[in-house]
Design a protein that fits this description.
The structure holds three protein chains of three kinds. By secondary structure, chain A is α/β, with parallel strands linked by helices. Chain A folds into two domains: 2-39 and 171-362, no CATH class; 43-163, abc type-2 transporter like fold. Helix content of chain A is 67%, strand content 9%. Chain A has helices at residues 2-16, 19-41, 58-69, 82-91, 104-111, 125-149, 174-201, 203-208, 214-244, 252-275, 280-298, 310-316, 320-334, 338-362; strands at 47-53, 73-77, 96-100, 114-121, 156-163. Chain A has a five-stranded mixed β-sheet, with helices on both faces. In chain A, helix 3 links the parallel strand 1 (47-53) and strand 2. Chain B is α/β, with parallel strands linked by helices. Chain B has one domain: P-loop containing nucleotide triphosphate hydrolases (Rossmann fold, 3-Layer(aba) Sandwich), CATH 3.40.50. Chain B is 37% helix and 26% strand. Chain B is built from nine helices and ten strands. In chain B, a hairpin with a 2-residue loop joins strand 9 (205-210) and strand 10. In chain B, helix 5 packs parallel to helix 6 (170-185). In chain C, helix 3 (95-105) packs parallel to helix 5. Chain C has two domains: 2-217, P-loop containing nucleotide triphosphate hydrolases (Rossmann fold, 3-Layer(aba) Sandwich); 228-292, Alpha-Beta Plaits (2-Layer Sandwich). Chain C is α/β, with parallel strands linked by helices. The chains are: A alpha/beta, B alpha/beta, C alpha/beta.
């Protein structure tokens, strides 16, 4: 046990004496969260919008007035036709279009059910989401004012249409995504590089020619990175809740449990990589290339999995971060408990177990 | 006839902060000379070599290499020198011929001249059958002989060799030195570091660096007389034993 | 008592299945200082890795301390000390931290075996708070030796401990090995420097994975088949060329300030005749002396006989 603790301490020395490792370990997650955080939470001001007003009646005019009065919007043109809207989007200088159908006021007053269409350029999904929210709120405000005057409840249905990226992903989806990305990348990279470094420097030879159990060498390498990743996770959570108002509706304990599973999974992946390569550069390259792309693509926070071809959707199932992402979203946003995410938990645990077994099997107690 | 001086240094100094890596070294090397550059680990050999190759700017002092100033004309210096070390020499995953063509190309040899050169080079090294082999598959000694020949493809005025024969077997080591003599006969100046003291004795003149300074500079014979020893090994030991700089 | 027994060990690598180690057999007695002498790539490192249980041989058997290198690898790992060619230390740990780490790795303490490393450690003790990466070659080598010794191994494997280290440090290192021998530790050391051979009790001369000769340095020198002469003249380069062109000279090699030569058939008058012939060719300041061959002479001679 004494030996083991010493080993762990040595690993901590390595981490804390290497500014580059430290920067990678803590700089990357902080930078990502802050980057995503500010990009997503800043209020969007003075976006140019266009309006196609087929109604041209009192209700549409009042809403347009309200839109113009808001400092979120700047109306570029309010007399476009439906067809011209597309052209305006293609030019790229407008972010949002609002269409009032003919007889808008009439529908509102007599059928209690009027339609407004909001079209957003969702190639930048976050902006699109925010802007449609602003517009919907303004329309709802107007509706409330009307309802105050007239006894019957009037209904304006805002019909939001996202073009270019119909499966718009929301703001808070990014935090769980970044958590998955950071934990997986950092852990895989750190373990594989630190083991391969010992191979490169020849210290692995000396470690192997000692009575110390080689498996313990590996576990003791994993321990510091496990702890550091937990710290990392905490930093991400604190930043995202304070900076971005990210909620944690479910159990924090469960959140850490799921994260620990992902970290273990990542550590065993790192170990596998270190087994198959002898240079730090190769380990780094495999970790980055082999992890970054699949995690970005197949976790679901950047690109919607539902829209991918079946083959890729199936492939996404073997990416651990996909399951972690679903679980974390359920915990943080929906506030669900283990009973609702047991499936994801089980899959993640299964993956970890399999990876650990393989890497344990493949671990070489000799040089070749 | 006055011989050309191809390396001339005057109080060449390099500091790293408080640490003086090379301290006011002054020496001349003549064209066609085999000049041995010896010293204990950490005596400042590598630093001095880097300055002479134009890879590192001196803190003070002057030097000219092949007539070019070490501060201002590093580009011309690089064109007129060859360099080979124990570690980096050739691309292991290219064949013998590909390496020759690549390095010849880098030094701007014309196609015709390059093909002549590579023919004669392969001939001299007796590598006809090995020309299409990957360099990585050759024994170390062959690699080093090839690396040296490649480093003088462009007929440089000076070639710097950093421990070229480390770990090479005794027979190939001697063949390597035959190549050095042949190059020196053609007028190429050889500037070489080595840990083999018999090789030090093959040099025309040697310097001994201790603690960043030149402690001795003469022919091996005179140095042995001066320290009344039978071999350079003893001379080296006498000189380097007093070194203070041990842990750097 | 035999501490290391190697029988017909072979090992090959790569696609071309080049034999790194080819049918090697030898044994080392307890407390012996045994040297494996040969150039890079001759198989020294592979052999050491096989004996330290880091590599499995393709064929053959070997034992260390009576334990089989394949079956009982754990026992061997508990007992031997190993210093790989690259002086494996952690550059970002201090001298003391390194030593402490390796002591704990072998489940011992610095204190328990301090007497064994004391003579070496005092030389690096002034730098004990310095990071190992900032030490000079000689210092690193001493620290690595301390680390390899800290658990008082029965057999010590030193793979090229003096490569890239200057003469002064090399001399000091060999002094230390002599001290360790006094402690009863069996030492196997490999080196490409032929002049270090005479510092060993017994040596194996290795080339291309095979042992060309194995004996005490004196015996190997004694077995040199011919008389060997050191020749000198004012123009050594021309002398070498001339010596090579002379028919009845069977070998001629440059050795520092002399050329070493042997004759094909010789009688008492042969050296005298050679001088006359060379003087006739214009050489001056001629000198020829009968000498004892060096290990390097023997090595070159053996290489010739083995068809290199």
């Amino acid at each position: 046990m004494n030996q083991f603790l010493l080993f762990v301490r040595k690993e901590f020395y390595h981490v804390f004496r290497d500014p580059k490792t430290l920067l990678l370990l803590f700089g990357m997650p902080i930078a990502q969260i802050i980057l995503f955080g500010f990009a997503l939470t800043n209020e969007i001001k003075n976006s140019t919008i266009v309006i196609a007003d087929y109604a041209n009646d009192i209700a549409s005019h009042q809403i347009i007035e309200k839109l113009a009065a808001s400092n979120n919007f700047e109306i570029q043109n309010q007399n476009l036709s439906h067809v011209e809207i597309e052209g305006a989007f293609k030019k790229g200088d407008i972010k949002l279009a609002i269409v009032f159908p003919a007889n808008f006021n009439n529908d509102l007053l007599h059928t209690n059910n009027a339609q407004v269409q909001i079209i957003a350029d969702a190639s930048d999904p976050n902006t699109a989401n925010t802007l449609t929210n602003y517009a919907s709120t303004i329309i709802k405000d107007y509706q409330r004012e009307l309802t105050g005057n007239i006894m019957a409840p009037l209904q304006i249905n805002t019909n939001v249409r996202m073009i270019y990226n119909p499966e718009l992903k929301g703001v808070f989806n990014f935090v769980p995504g970044v958590m998955a990305l950071v934990l997986l990348l950092v852990c895989v990279l750190m373990t594989s590089v630190s083991i391969v470094r010992e191979k490169e420097s020849g210290t692995m030879e000396v470690l192997l020619v000692s009575p110390f159990n080689p498996i313990l060498v590996i576990i003791s390498k994993a321990v510091p990175y496990f702890f550091l990743s937990i710290i990392n996770l905490t930093v991400i959570l604190v930043l995202s809740t304070t900076l971005m108002g990210m909620p944690i509706n479910g159990s924090i304990g469960l959140l850490y449990f799921e994260s620990s599973l992902l970290i273990l999974c990542a550590l065993s992946l790192g170990l596998l990589i270190s087994n198959s390569t002898d240079s730090q550069q190769a380990a780094m390259l495999i970790s980055l290339m082999g992890m970054l792309l699949p995690v970005m693509m197949f976790t679901g926070f950047m690109f919607p999995l539902e829209n991918m071809p079946t083959g890729l959707q199936l492939f996404a199932n073997i990416v651990p971060s996909k399951w972690y992402y679903i679980a974390v979203k359920s915990i943080m946003i929906k506030g669900l408990g283990l009973s609702e995410i047991w499936r994801e938990t089980l899959i993640l645990a299964g993956m970890t177990a399999v990876l650990l077994t393989i890497s344990n099997r493949k671990f070489k107690i000799r040089l070749s | 006839m006055e011989t050309d001086i191809v390396i001339k240094t005057e109080k060449l100094t390099k500091r790293f902060g408080d640490f003086i890596a090379t301290n006011q070294i002054t020496f001349d090397v003549q064209a066609g000379e085999i000049f041995g550059f010896l010293g204990a680990n950490g005596a400042g050999k590598t630093t001095a070599m880097k300055m002479l190759c134009g890879l590192s700017t001196p803190t003070s002092g002057n030097a000219t290499i092949a007539g070019f100033d070490i501060y201002r004309e590093t580009e011309q210096i690089k064109k007129n020198i060859g360099y080979m070390s124990q570690k980096f020499s050739l691309y292991e995953d290219l064949t013998v011929l590909e390496n020759i063509n690549f390095f010849g190309g880098i030094y701007g040899l014309s196609k015709k001249r390059l093909s002549e050169k590579s023919e004669s080079l392969i001939e001299t090294l007796n590598m006809k059958e090995l020309r299409k082999k990957l360099v990585g598959s050759l024994p170390l000694g062959w690699k080093q002989k090839l690396a040296f020949s490649v480093s003088i493809l462009h007929e440089p005025k000076i070639v710097f060799l950093d421990e070229p024969t480390g770990g090479v077997d005794p027979v190939t080591r001697r063949q390597f030195w035959d190549l050095l003599y042949a190059a020196a006969d053609r007028g190429i100046t050889i500037f070489v570091t080595t840990h083999y003291m018999d090789e030090a004795e093959y040099c025309n003149r040697i310097t001994m660096m201790v603690d960043g300074e030149i402690k001795a500079l003469d022919t091996p014979k005179k140095l042995m007389q001066q320290y009344s020893s039978d071999s350079m090994d003893e001379v080296f030991y006498e000189l380097a034993r007093g070194a203070k700089r041990k842990a750097d | 008592m035999v501490d290391v027994q190697v029988t017909n060990i072979s090992k090959s690598y790569g696609q071309e299945r080049q034999n790194a180690v080819d049918q090697v057999s030898f044994s080392v007695s307890k407390g012996e200082l045994f040297g494996l002498i040969g150039p890079d790539g001759c198989g020294k490192t592979s052999l050491f890795r096989i004996l330290t249980t880091l590599l499995l041989p393709d064929s053959g058997t070997a034992s260390v301390n009576g334990f089989d290198i394949v079956k009982d690898f754990r026992e061997i790992r508990r007992r031997v000390g190993y210093m790989p060619g690259k002086f494996s230390l952690y550059p970002d740990l201090t001298v003391e931290e390194n030593l402490h780490f390796f002591a704990t790795l072998f489940d011992t303490t610095i204190k328990a075996n301090y007497d064994l490393i004391k003579d070496i450690y005092v030389q690096i003790a002034p730098f004990k708070d310095r990071r190992a990466g900032k030490l000079s070659g000689g210092m690193k080598q001493k620290l690595a030796l301390c680390c390899a010794l800290i658990h008082r191994p029965t057999v010590l494997f030193l793979d090229e401990p003096t490569t890239g280290v200057d003469t002064v440090s090399r001399k000091e290192f060999w002094e230390m090995l002599k001290l360790l021998k006094g402690e009863g530790i069996t030492i196997l050391v490999s080196t490409p420097y032929m002049d270090e051979a005479t510092l060993c009790e017994r040596i194996a001369l290795i080339q291309k994975g095979t042992i060309m000769s194995i004996d005490t340095p004196d015996q190997i020198i004694h077995q040199f088949p011919k008389k060997i002469y050191a020749v000198m003249a004012r123009n050594m380069g021309a002398l070498l060329a001339d010596l090579r062109s002379i028919q009845h000279i069977s070998s001629c090699n440059a050795f520092g300030q002399y050329h070493h030569i042997t004759f094909q058939d010789e009688d008492v008058r042969t050296p005298r005749k050679l001088i006359e012939e060379l003087e006739y060719r214009g050489h001056v300041d001629m000198e020829i002396t009968l000498i004892d061959p060096t290990i390097e002479d023997c090595f070159i001679n053996l290489m010739d006989r083995h068809g290199n």
